[in-house]
Automatic annotation (TrEMBL), chain A:
Protein name stated in the entry: ABC transporter, ATP-binding protein
All copies of domain ABC transporter, residue ranges: 2-234
Ribosomal protein listed as a keyword: no
GO cellular component: plasma membrane; transmembrane transporter complex
Family named by the database record: Belongs to the ABC transporter superfamily. Macrolide exporter (TC 3.A.1.122) family.
Keyword Repeat attributed: no
Gene3D superfamilies: P-loop containing nucleotide triphosphate hydrolases
UniProt keywords, alphabetically: ATP-binding, Nucleotide-binding, Transport
Superkingdom: Bacteria
Species annotation: Marinobacterium lacunae
PANTHER family: ABC TRANSPORTER ABCH.1, IMPORT ATP-BINDING PROTEIN
TrEMBL record, chain B:
Membrane topology of the entry: Multi-pass membrane protein
InterPro entries from the UniProt entry: ABC3_permease_C, MacB_PCD, Macrolide_Exporter_MacB
Gene Ontology cellular component annotations, sorted alphabetically: plasma membrane
Name assigned to this protein: Putative ABC transporter protein
Keyword set, alphabetical order: Cell membrane, Membrane, Transmembrane, Transmembrane helix
Residue ranges of domain ABC3 transporter permease C-terminal in the record: 280-393
Annotated GO MF terms: transmembrane transporter activity
PANTHER family attached to this UniProt entry: ABC TRANSPORTER PERMEASE YTRF, MEMBRANE COMPONENT OF TRANSPORTER-RELATED
Length: 234, 405
């Protein structure tokens, strides 16, 4: 589903250059569940942003579902972000002035989905995530865990193929963190390819495939034994 | 994005920041209202003047004592002449070739008494010719009789307004009224033509000119209206009138002769100036509104950097982000313009109800022009910040950093 080849991203800070991504190769199978770990500054977020088309590489190739991404213009990238990719951020990034329902339907609004269709889809999702009671609540009226669940709902309302989460539990206590991870795994169980950046080794271990990064390179790529043949669904 | 969603999205924003919304609405509304109000008044004044003089017609000349036309400004309207224009002058003028008729005019305020009531009323002294010249028709009775100018008759014609005030519902025709210290019998009531003030006879009393001379104790005419014979050259007649007056006044040119064209020209100049200053005021207030919009859009862009990043991450294209900010500014100024239009018309309507004679009409160019300018200014000034927002790179924007990509 995803193929990265020799992906490079270099930042220049005061004459010093930082290789956030250093000739990185990676292939991800559809429906897989990956965790990305590594020390701070190792390039985890940069990798995620590349995969999510939020950032552009300096060199290398990125193919998503057989389509070369490096060649696309900004408009097309926006389209793909809308249709194929969902993001979950550590800081939730909900819009304060909109209530939970309005936040969730934002991706649908941006592409002009008619209100009736939006309503049924959001209602369905709210029901599933146990957020129905909070549909009319604004972010400041919600707990951290509830906010992150609203953010997840927003990320998957489009039924994306790829769900990217950058330290989704970073701001949460362990209980709501576990809930959020449970929810993400449930979504993965429905076929969404899931990639989670985390600092929590216990959480990282739950993933079927665990990547370890350092200095912009993948230094380890392990697979849980019970996850079957790694190449089965590539 | 659907238009309804766009509007709702913007409404959320505008309501949340109601104070800045209010300020921009105010600035825009003031600009638009100013345009409507001032052009409405200017156009009203122009129509007013046109109405007034169209009553007289192109072929009418107005003679007044005193010579003041050398300045090139407004023709004298007060007319403190050096030498009076007498009734003999008027007779001589009416014998000129090319002049069809001549009507003398004396104007003053006189106390008018009927039974127990008395009112101060504008009183005209003139002749039967005046009725022909102004094409006044009678509601009841007849116009002034065709008597020699020097003969002071004890008859008068009154306007419908005067009739209402002095006689109420009672019969006026044939009754006697006292003007100053003389008595006059009402022989006619002028038809109410609903004309505008100044030249409006509906609240005036019209007497034979010689009687008015006695009441006001004056010899000189306030004005003399001359109608040029059909087919005769206005310019030639004008020269003849001036020559005759010069000759009769011992070789001195001490009268002013104005034509409708000259007067209208002068008014048009003044009104043009007025319109220009109106345009300037309006332009200034709309540019102020525009700069406000630009500043506020800039602030909004930097405050909402993270939101822009988020919208982009959720799939908003650069074009959509630009549209979001520009449509927000457009909505603001459209609302402001709407408020301005409503309040501008309300004020004009208020003015009209206070002073009904004054025609108030907003020319279409002013209405559409102010709207277009308001919206144009908003787009123009929001464009820069909106494009800046559109160019933001999603990663940086999400971190809340404002860097141009
Ligand atoms: N906009 C930027 N400008 C300059 N350097 C940057 C920028 N973004 C990232 N970097 C650098 O690139 C490297 C990788 O950053 P990245 O955010 O991917 O790290 P990370 O693995 O996500 O770290 P953390 O665990 O702390 O989130 C870091 O050294 C960082 O300083
Ligand atoms: Mg990071």
């Amino acid at each position: 589903m995803i193929v990265l080849e020799q992906l490079c991203k270099t930042y220049h800070l005061g004459g010093e250059s930082v290789h956030a991504l250093d000739h990185l190769d990676l292939q991800i199978a559809a429906g897989d569940y990956l965790s990305v770990m590594g020390p701070s500054g190792s390039g985890k977020s940069t990798l995620l942003n590349m995969l999510g088309l939020l950032d552009t590489p300096d060199s290398g190739h990125y193919r998503l579902e057989q389509q070369e991404m490096s060649a696309l213009g900004e408009e097309q990238r926006a389209q793909i972000r809308n249709h194929k990719i969902g993001f979950v951020f550590q800081a939730y990034h909900l819009i304060d002035r909109l209530n939970a329902r309005e936040n969730i339907e934002l991706p649908l609004i941006l592409t002009g989905v008619p209100p009736r269709e939006r309503r049924t889809r959001v209602d369905e999702l709210l029901e599933r995530l146990g957020l129905s009671r909070h549909a009319a609540h604004h972010p400041h009226q919600l707990s951290g865990g509830q906010r992150q669940r609203v953010a997840i709902a927003r990320a998957v309302i489009r039924r994306p193929a790829l769900l990217l989460a950058d330290e989704p539990t970073g701001n949460l206590d362990s209980h709501s963190g576990a809930e959020v991870i449970g929810l993400l795994e449930e979504l993965n169980g429905e076929g969404i390819t899931l990639l989670v950046v985390t600092h929590d080794p216990a959480m990282g271990k739950r993933a079927r495939r665990q990547l370890w990064m350092q200095d912009g390179q993948l230094i380890s790529d392990t697979r849980n034994r019970d996850s079957g043949d790694p190449d089965a669904n590539r | 994005m659907r238009t309804a969603d766009l509007i709702q999205f913007n409404l959320h924003l505008l309501l949340r920041q109601w104070f800045r919304t209010l300020m921009i609405l105010l600035a825009t509304a003031v600009g638009v209202a100013a345009v409507l109000l001032l052009t409405g008044l200017g156009e009203g004044a122009r129509r007013f003047v046109l109405d007034e003089f169209s009553l007289l017609g192109q072929d009418t000349l107005i003679l007044l004592p005193g010579r003041k036309e050398t300045t090139g400004g407004l023709p004298p309207l007060t007319g403190e002449g050096t030498r009076d224009i007498t009734l003999d002058d008027v007779d001589a003028l009416s014998r000129l070739p090319g002049i069809e008729m001549v009507a003398p005019l004396i104007v003053g305020n006189a106390q008018v008494y009927v039974g127990g009531r008395n009112r101060e009323i504008v009183t005209l002294g003139t002749s039967a010719r005046f009725f022909e010249l102004r094409q006044l028709s009678m509601q009841q009775g007849q116009a002034l009789p065709d008597i020699p100018l020097q003969q002071a008759g004890a008859v008068c014609v009154i306007g419908p307004e005067v009739r209402r005030e002095l006689f109420g519902t009672q019969r006026a025709l044939g009754e006697w009224i006292r003007v100053g210290d003389r008595r006059f019998r009402v022989i006619g009531i002028v038809e109410d033509r609903g004309e505008s003030l100044g030249m409006d006879v509906s609240n005036q009393v019209i007497l034979p000119v010689a009687s008015a001379q006695q009441i006001f104790n004056t010899q000189g005419m306030f004005r003399v209206l001359l109608k040029v014979r059909a087919g005769a050259s206005i310019e030639r007649s004008r020269e003849r009138v001036i020559e005759l007056m010069q000759q009769r006044h011992g070789g001195e040119r001490d009268v002013t002769l104005i034509t409708q064209d000259a007067l209208l020209g002068a008014f048009t100049d003044i009104l043009g100036l007025l319109t220009l200053s109106v345009a300037a005021i309006a332009a200034i207030s709309l540019v102020v509104a525009g700069i406000l919009i630009m500043n506020i859009t800039l602030i909004s862009v930097s405050q909402r950097t993270a939101e822009i990043g988020l919208l982009k991450a959720l799939g908003a294209s650069a074009a959509l982000v630009r549209l979001l900010f520009i449509s927000e500014a457009l909505m603001l100024s459209a609302f402001g313009a709407l408020i301005g239009i409503i309040s501008g018309y309300a004020l004009l309507w208020l003015g009209h109800s206070i002073w009904p004679q004054f025609p108030v009409t907003v020319p279409l160019w002013a209405l559409s022009g102010s709207l277009i300018i308001a919206l144009g200014v908003a787009t123009l000034f929001a464009w820069l910040p909106a494009s800046r927002a559109a160019r933001l790179a999603p990663v940086q924007a999400l971190k809340g950093e404002v860097h141009d990509a």
